[in-house]
Specification:
Helix content of chain A: 40-55%
Strand order of the largest sheet of chain A: 1-2-5-4-3-12
Shape of chain A: globular
Shape of chain B: globular
Distance between the termini of chain A: 60 Å
Helix content of chain B: over 70%
CATH architecture of one domain in chain A: Beta Barrel
Number of domains of chain B: 1
CATH superfamily of one domain in chain A: Rod shape-determining protein MreC, domain 2
Order of helices and strands of chain A: HHHEEEEEEEEEEEEHHH
Distance between the termini of chain B: 23 Å
CATH class of one domain in chain A: Mainly Beta
Strand content of chain A: 15-25%
Oligomer: heterodimer
Largest interface: A-B, 47 and 43 residues
CATH topology of one domain in chain A: Thrombin, subunit H
Chain lengths: 337, 164
């Protein structure tokens, strides 16, 4: 009895000292992780090492899903097959139309002397980890740099933009969802072409567009898509549908909320868009001031100016995980919100 | 009275299960109610043995959870560190409480832990995460008696196997 009590009481002071030391270490680690991303290498390594664990944890769930598929009746499967065949036929017909449009588009671009746009290359990925901390909207996918996934690439599901690759290791990658409160996405309203930013709200079924000018033409039902500004996303990827416009806000701004088209809390099968945006910039040398070159072509599609910024970024070899999101976050800090 | 060492297998198994439970994919509506499994399991072992009382161990286990859960590196490290420190101060009392009082003590510890995590969340995200933030400790405390009985029988099972 004595030995234990003695050690306990003697250790009392040392224990407090160690509490303070470890506490300080924890705070320093959090600051480093939050501010400087100094620990991203360590975190990448850790996430990479842990991917097998996520897959193991997910096994029973995939197993259940497969079992469910196995026990589907034959008529159900037959119906499903028929429906899929029909859908396939429709999609193929649409693809033919798209091919026609693409060649038209290419000719027009050649006439305008504008950049060639490239095909989208995608990597098919599955979620291996979801819903960990409800306050950080991140998921892990099972493909990494070995498969061509890079930091900053867009992640989509069948219906719309899902998120953006935030960190990547050889066999896995971490994706920040567009609903993360720290994420901002450059978007435009499809109907009017007006450009703005869509911020995450912390709720996977809601995005907010907080700083729209008073005279903005925006209505419930409008579809918003990526604008391609910032250089990480291809322009025109569908993002969300506006469901509420709030004119009552104070100041010179109105705000709107939108529902993401992607099933941020449902989808398990995703694609990462891995094709580089047009890299070779034959029109202008990238060293010229991008702003001035934008002015000359701003009227065309808005595509060229993105290319310029992208090329400038590629030149600078940025390693910042999501510069556009970071910039936008800093904007919010000083903005009207 | 020296506390008998608990079999390491039981400790490892229960902590591994706690990790798996923490990173299980969950439907969105269930997430706020999902208890802090690792804290519950750590609380049990801290009450019953000395083996997990080390602050360094608690810190490392928390860092591992941060890596697994994708939270800020150090958030759960700090939270488990403080939890184990407090358990070191109060466990001789908590250990001999009747079940309902022990449950209340666990509730208080979990709430305190939530406050610690609230600091971190507020500092890093800059906004209050919503009232659902306080549901997890309640769920954890409600689960505590059953978890206690389960881990107790696990510990006994392994100890008996050792003695044979």
């Amino acid at each position: 009895m004595n030995t234990e009590q003695d050690t306990l009481f003697q250790k009392g002071a040392g224990r407090t000292a160690r509490l303070l030391a470890y506490g300080l270490l924890a705070i320093m680690m959090m600051a480093a992780d939050h501010r400087g991303h100094y620990l991203s290498q360590f975190r990448n390594w850790g996430t990479h090492a842990l991917v097998p664990i996520y897959e193991t944890v997910g096994l029973p769930f995939t197993g259940l899903r497969h079992a469910g598929e196995y026990f589907q009746s034959q008529t159900d499967l037959h119906q499903q097959l028929q429906r899929l065949q029909q859908q396939n036929l429709e999609l193929r017909a649409q693809t033919l139309l798209v091919e026609k449009l693409r060649s038209d588009n290419q000719q027009l671009r050649e006439l305008l002397g504008a950049q060639q746009s490239q095909n989208l290359n995608v990597v098919y990925v599955e979620l291996v980890r979801i819903g960990l901390d409800p306050y950080s909207h991140r998921v892990v996918i099972n493909r990494g740099s070995r498969h061509g996934v890079r930091i900053g690439q867009a992640v989509m599901d069948a219906n719309g933009v899902f998120g953006q690759v935030e960190s990547v290791s050889a066999g896995g990658a971490e994706v920040i969802l567009i609903s993360d409160p720290n994420h901002a996405l450059p978007v435009q309203i499809n109907r009017t072409g007006m450009r703005t930013l869509a911020y995450g709200s912390g709720n996977p079924n809601r995005l907010v567009l907080p700083d729209l000018p008073l005279n903005t033409d925006i209505r419930p039902g409008d579809i918003i898509a990526t604008s391609g500004l910032g250089g990480h996303f291809h322009p025109g990827l569908p993002v969300a549908q506006v469901d509420e416009v709030d004119h009552s806000g104070q100041g010179d701004f109105i705000s709107a909320s939108a529902t993401p088209l992607a099933g941020l809390d449902r989808s398990a099968q995703l694609v990462v868009i891995t094709s580089q945006r047009d890299m070779d910039l034959s029109l202008e040398t990238p060293t010229t001031n991008p702003a001035s070159s934008n002015g000359s072509v701003a009227g065309s599609t808005g595509n060229t100016e993105n290319d310029t910024s992208q090329a400038a970024e590629n030149q600078a070899q940025t390693t910042e995980p999501s510069s556009e999101a970071n910039n936008a976050t800093e904007n919010t800090a000083g903005g009207p919100r | 009275m020296k506390r008998p060492n608990a079999p390491w297998q039981a400790i490892f198994l229960s902590i591994a299960v706690a990790y798996l439970l923490s990173i299980m994919p969950l439907p969105y509506w269930l997430q706020p109610y999902w208890p802090y499994w690792l804290a519950l399991v750590m609380t049990y072992w801290c009450l019953e043995t000395n083996q997990l009382m080390g602050l360094g161990r608690a810190f490392l286990l928390g860092i591992l959870l941060d890596l697994l859960a994708g939270t800020l590196l150090g958030q759960h490290g700090l939270s488990l560190l403080i939890l184990v420190y407090l358990l070191g101060l109060f466990r001789n009392r908590i250990r001999f409480f009747p079940a309902w009082q022990q449950t209340l003590a666990v509730l208080a510890l979990l709430f305190n832990d939530r406050v610690v995590q609230l600091w971190v969340v507020m500092a890093s995200q800059g906004q209050f995460p919503g009232w659902q933030f306080w549901l997890a400790p309640v769920a954890g405390a409600l689960l505590w008696p059953w978890l206690f009985l389960m881990l107790d029988s696990l510990r006994r099972y392994w100890r008996n196997r050792h003695q044979q």
